[in-house]
Specification:
alpha+beta, NodN-like, 6 helices
């Protein structure tokens, strides 16, 4: 993939297609705080102790609380939006994911950032389907903490 650090701002299907094979990023570092993990647990009703019980988690093999894998995934729209702006179109929608993996934990207090690869851009009825690779990396780790292949549907202005 070709790499770039400039946020991409395509406004046509042709400009979006030109980004295929391009890696965007990384984003600035984003801190994962215990307050954010607690709020995510409340929002999803996922109150597993490894995310919330700091004393019990400290005694575990992980050495402390960790973020939910789905919290990492849910950062995708915010972080990818810093790398690829689709504001030149009428709107875009999250269409889903082909693959999602969480190869390493995200300890609370760590910082993460995203790299975004534009895998494909295909015209579909009513718009454009864009497939992107999202890689979330943790500061100081050689292994990514989240790898996902996301799909968006983009609708051009009429």
């Amino acid at each position: 993939m070709t790499a770039t650090t400039t946020p991409a701002r395509p406004s046509t299907a042709a400009e979006l297609s030109e980004l295929v094979g391009t890696e965007l990023g990384p984003t600035p570092w984003y801190e994962i705080s215990q307050d954010r993990v607690n709020a995510f647990a409340d929002a999803t009703d996922d109150h597993q102790w490894i995310h919330l019980d700091t004393e019990r988690a400290a005694a575990s093999d992980l050495g402390g609380t960790i973020a939910h894998g789905l919290l990492s995934l849910s950062l995708g729209p915010h972080l990818s939006g810093q790398l690829l702006s689709l504001s030149g179109f009428a709107h875009s929608l999250n269409y889903g994911y082909n693959k999602v993996r969480f190869p390493a934990p995200v300890p609370v207090g760590s910082r993460v950032r995203m790299r975004l690869g534009v895998v494909s851009s295909d015209e579909v009825p009513g718009g454009i389907q864009v497939t992107m690779s999202q890689v979330l990396e943790r500061e100081g780790s050689d292994k990514p903490v989240m790898v996902a292949e996301s799909i968006a549907r983009v609708v051009a202005d009429a």
